[in-house]
Amino acid sequence: MSSALLSIQADLARIAGDVERLAPAAPVQPAAPVDDGFDAASASQGDGFVAGFKQVLQAVDERDKAASAQVADVDAGRSDDLVGAMLASQQASLSFSMLMQVRNKVVGAFDELIKLQL
Description:
Oligomer: single chain
Strand content: under 5%
Number of domains: 1
Shape: elongated
Distance between the termini: 46 Å
Number of helices: 3
Radius of gyration: 16 Å
Helix content: over 70%
């Protein structure tokens, strides 16, 4: 496994830890993963921000796993779709980058809220 994939998996684990830290005291049932990342209909039904963020986190993880599988298939000679594998890899990378930006904004806003309460 490449160092980039290991780095992405480590960052996903760290993000999952951050989501757990920001979660309310009551346990939240994990939502089923979706292909497009965020399902606005389920979020508007009261699932909350944390459940929506977990859903997005799972979708990004699934996209990363699918891209890794495509690259592994090309490496092993089971597939000759190099372009498709590279596109999937770039999509997974962009999804992860966007997730990191959202995570950073949420953590920053959370820190600001903590400062306001002092």
